[in-house]
Amino acid sequence: MINRHSFLLIGSMILVLLATAFISIDTRFSGIDKAETWNNKENTCEFSDTTSLPRYSYIENYQNDAKIDSNNVRIRKANLIDLSNAYEEKILTNEEFLDNMTDGGGELKAYYLKGQIDKISLWLGLSYGISTYDYYFENEKLFYIHETFKQFEYVDSTGSFNYSKTEQTFTGRYYFMNDVLYDYETTGHNRFESDEIDPEQVLIEEANIWIEKLKK
Length: 216
Fold this sequence. Notes:
Elements: H1 4-28, E1 37-39, E2 44-47, H2 62-83, E3 88-93, E4 106-113, E5 116-125, E6 129-138, E7 141-155, E8 160-177, E9 180-187, H3 199-215
Antiparallel strand pairs: 1-2, 3-4, 4-5, 5-6, 6-7, 7-8, 8-9
C-alpha cells in the first residue's frame, strides 16, 4: 500500500514533468522575431515570431495559435510604421510610374528610414472605384500587405456612378514570412478566386515592380 508520503512524492514528480513540458512548448514560441521558418508543405511552424501564446492550450492547437499570433505581430509592426513620423517620403504620380494610366490616376509613395524602404503605399483611381495597397517591409523583406477596394455608388436612375459616395467591398490581408505567403484573409470578391492564379507570386512581383519604379 502506498503511504501518504509516497503519494505526495509521486504527485510532485508528475507536476514537475507537466510543468517542464509546458515550459518547453512556451519557450519554443516565445520572443518576437526569434525565427521565421514556416513549413508550407506540412502547414507547420518550426519556430514562430510570436510574442506570447496561451500557456495551457492543448498541444495540437499550438500550430494555429502560432499562425494567428504571427499575423497579429505583423499587423502591430505595420501600425507602428504608420504612426511614425521619422520617415522620408518619395512620391510618384500618374505617368511617373503607371505604364497604363487609370481613369482617376494614381499615386505611389515610399517611406524611407536610413535608406531602406519600410512601406510603399499605392493609390489607384479607377472608373468604378478606388484601390489601395500598402506594402510593409522589414530589413527589405516583405512581411505584410493590406489591400482595399472602395466602389463608387451606382445610381440606377442616371445609369452612372456617384463619385462622392463609396462602399468598401473588399479587404485583403496577406502575411509573409521569408518571401512565403503563409496566410491571408479576404472579405468580398477578389482577383485570386481562380485556382490558376498564384497570389504569392503575383503579390511579390507587384511589390518588386513598385520598388524598381521608385529607384528611377
